[in-house]
Amino acid sequence: MLSGAAAQSDLLAPLACEAALLLAVSGGPDSVALMLLAARWPPRAAGVKISVATVDHGLRENSREEALRVAQWARALGFDHHLLTWQGLKPATRVQESARAARYALLCACARELAPECAVVTAHHADDQAETILFRLTRGSGVAGLSGMASASTRDGVRLLRPLLGVPKAALEAICVAAGHPFLRDPANENTRFARARLRALSATLEAQGLGAGALLRLGKRAAQAEAALNWRLSHASGAAVLSRDAVETKLDAAALRDLPREILQRLLGAEIQRRGAPPPRLDRLERAAEIVAQALAEGAQKRITLAGLSIRVADRQVTLMAAPPRAEGCTKPETELPANEEDA
């Protein structure tokens, strides 16, 4: 599928309108292939500014040496290279999650320093997408999670672009082999201490049961279509339900909320929570909040709960969201408090 130079160049076509790009290159075959594709990409010659960054997580003894090797490769291909280091003590648990958060924070900070419009480009591929969908499936994720990774998203005010999500890992390795370019192997990818590595080890068994990469990618595509339809419905519901928004509070019309499907009510509450600057609630906690609000609306009862540092109050034919007041030390809880937020798996 990627035998011709034109076909390979087309993989980066979605990036052609960008003014500045920062490629995240760890040294693995997928990110090295991304760098090779960018090196011979026609828009680069036409003025698209492309730089490369490598994050040294400091989790392995030879990580610095490997990062410096990637820097040499990048400069040999004509790219400016930025070596980013995860400083400080490393956590004893949830190491991969913490490393991922640190990596994106470093990449986004670097992109902002390079140019206001600079986007970060990662080499996530079709195998990564299938693995992500399976990982989220095992954790009972909702429709949004089962959609997999988006080809474009935003983090810390920086756009993240993933142009290779439709390309199998084997095709990217073939690009490196055809170019005679070396790449690195991360031993953590085979370390069964980590959930993703354990799922990877089950790939042959899952394939035999009809849950291979192709089936998972189809699931992701269908979930993405359903997600788009739900968000379309949400936009219409929000337009009818929002009475007012200001720096202090958001007021929603209880009558407009009462007959909404639970999924749309839940999404509307989640969207308003994030609009008010709170982090997205974990799915199970948002579901519980929507259940409580729906029950209060159905019964015409007054109710107040706390979620994501916000007070959600059902009263006087309105649902009001505002910052939760600080609780006096030693006082009993005056309202139902849902647990603090965590990122949805």
Low-confidence stretches: 331-335, 339-345
Would you identify the CATH H-level superfamily of the largest domain?
A: HUPs
* Mean pLDDT across residues: 90
Q: How many domains make up the coordinates?
A: 2
Q: Reading side by side through the largest sheet, how are the strands ordered?
A: 3-2-1-4-6-5
Looking at the structure, what is the overall shape?
elongated
Give the N-terminus to C-terminus distance in angstroms.
32 Å
Description:
The protein has 345 residues and is of the alpha/beta class. It folds into 2 domains: 5-218, Rossmann fold; 246-337, no CATH class. Helices cover 47% and strands 17% of the residues. It contains 14 helices and 12 strands. The strands form 2 sheets. A 6-stranded mixed beta sheet has the order 3-2-1-4-6-5, sandwiched between helices. The longest helix is centred in the middle third of the chain and has 29 residues, at 213-241. The model is unreliable at 331-335 and 339-345 (pLDDT under 50).
What attributes characterize this protein structure?
single chain, 345 residues, alpha/beta, Rossmann fold, six-stranded mixed sheet, 14 helices, 12 strands, disordered C terminus
Task: Annotate the secondary structure layout.
Blueprint: H1 5-10, E1 20-24, H2 29-39, H3 42-45, E2 49-56, H4 63-76, E3 80-85, H5 95-114, E4 119-121, H6 126-138, H7 143-146, E5 152-155, E6 158-161, H8 169-179, H9 195-201, H10 203-208, H11 213-241, E7 242-245, E8 249-253, H12 254-258, H13 262-275, H14 283-299, E9 303-307, E10 310-315, E11 318-323, E12 336-337
Parallel strand pairs: 1-2, 1-4, 2-3, 4-6, 9-12
Antiparallel strand pairs: 5-6, 7-8, 8-11, 9-10, 10-11
Helix pairs in contact: 2-8, 6-9, 6-11, 11-13, 13-14
